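Milestone M4 deliverable, item 7.
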Amino acid sequence: MRNRRTDFLQIGEQKGYIKILDGGTTIHYVAPGKKYKFTDPEEQVRARYYVELIERYQYPENRIDLEVNVPRRTPSDFADIVIFQDDAKVDPYIIIECKKDGISELEFEQAIEQAFGNCNSLLGHYTGVIAGNTRRFFNAKDFGSMERDRNVIADIPVGYGKVQEWRYKKDDPDWDLQVVGKGELTRVLGKCHDTLWQGGKLAPTDAFDELSKILFIKIRDEKKPRDKGDPYDFQIKTRETAKSVADRIKVLYQEAKTRDPEVFTEDVKVDDTPLFSVVNHLQGINLNQTDLDVKGIAFERFLGSYFKGDMGQYFTPRELVEFIINMVEPKHEERILDPACGSGGFLLYVMEHIQREASRYYEEGTPEHHNHWHNFAEKYLFGIEVNDAIARVAKMNMILHDDGHSNVIGNDALINFDRLYDQNRGFQKESFDIILTNPPFGANIKKEEKPYLDDYKLGERRNSQKTEILFLERCFDFLKWETGKLAIVLPDGILNNASLQYVRDYIEQHYRILAVVSLPQIAFRYYEAGVKPSILFLQKYSEEEYSLYQANIHRITGENEAIYMPRVEELENERKKMIDEHGCPAQVAVTERYEPQFRAILNNIEDLNRKLDRKPTQTFLRWRERFVRDTSLEAPQKFELYDRNTANNQLKTHHRDLTAFAREYKEQYKAASDAEWESQIKEEYKEKIHGIKEALADKNAEDIRQWVEENANHPIFMAMAERIGYDATGRKDPINDLNTICEEYQRFSRDPDFFG
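Output delivered:
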């Protein structure tokens, strides 16, 4: 049974301790006969505690007074609440200072000093400060006036009795931990973060890391087996110093970390005083039994307040998450993955979906009910987040919602599979039944930074590629053949831009398209993203279907390359000949100037080669090919040479002349080069070749697309949502087209012909 926070205002009105007047603007405390402005947040805190003193702490209402003048202090100084030991109200017993919820740590410490000043002047026994759920009490009578550590008490006495060593006890009807609402939980998380942040002493993310560890300890302590009436360890007991509280909390952390080493690896790095304060903020709250929905909303609001701009983009609006999960309908035996899990929204709501499934099959509270969803959270739920800080947010979110954290890892989901597998054996290729994801839009993966880009079909031969495009391919690799399903949020450009036709082709060649749901422009505007998105629901082909597709793609590609590629080779040869043999106009002039001498030398060499029956050298052949257009050799004439030695010497001389002349020509030719002309020629041929390759790619895409349409023709559900349950500012919208779309999709899935 959940021990919910008691509504003392309601009790106070029902029993006549207080009256709310003037449309809620004034409060009348009946016994003291005093009225105050109820719109003041401080007054609301005092009103609740006033009724609590009567109901829970059993103090007579006629012995409680408000705004009691404090002697020996300035005339305008009054104690907020004073409990007296006598009906005449002359013997003060407890003096309380009330502050609004959410004050800073410094303001709380100042309030403690104010409470002590009032208590010492009134000669009271106990004093304390109330600021919402944050409370701290002291024994002021038995210690020196400046003592603030050794005189801490767990709580004020009940009905003038003895101070208890511990306040919070398991299954105690009055003093067990209490379930809170989302507003209060959000404020508590904010106070804890501010206490740890210490006005900038820690970075916000570092403060959150430390808060995550403390929440981890708190949740584990709530789950720790203990007898009814035994005190919880995560609290401040009577006469306990900041150091002793911190020491106990750190021991609890080490114990929890040993049992669950994958969550946190570093020790708690918080100083004793702020850790003491955080325990004070959290000690009375039951995090485990607070509703999942409450914890989810509170956690998102808290993170949105403290990490807006840094972590805001890691939230997918809950309306979209719920819609996607309802469309996919995951089951507890299916392995689920979000490879861009952010703060864990998809994972949490899948877990909640499976908890509801468990409630349909088993009675809540039974081992069968618990095992049904808990086994799923432990073994079937996986997440990857590239940002380590956000990965820790996801883990903490999962812990708050009761497990599932061990399969959330911090890493780049696009890296080599072996590295993911080494980090967690659950991340295997072709092993997931369902992937639900909202990958980051617009981020560019650059080859110079991420060499793995070439490992992707959608990244090969590119210098960069959009993250969301690569995720389509990585999800394909993660999914099981034939049955694996993907629900992915993508920018509309992937579905519409002409330049991204190749991405659409990839989708059609790898997935069966089940549904496409277009979302309005405002879908992510609250999170400072104005891209118009759509949600694609896809199913991976079977291995047989995929092999058939690939075989026909290769066949079509080969047939088209046989037509187009010879022309590409022809142009490449033309370009090479143009640059290497002809050259720019100045080089052509050099060639024309040297050509007569070259021809004369080459003719002499050829004549001597024939007379001596010698084979021509490679150098001779190379220059003859360049300068002698008619290269046909006549049959050697057979005749007797009377002076063979002289002919050999002449041949050597001509070869030396050819070498020297060629060297001179090369120098002149090089000097006449024109880099701008050469660049222009290369660019002209590059454009011609690119045009042919583009024509080849277009023909390929057209032929393949036609084949796919003819051979993979299946009905696709398409819908457009205009209103999605929230507006551009994040406020609730009572109209949500997504609910209707989901219902229609379920009908379509059962009977596609119904829609014509």
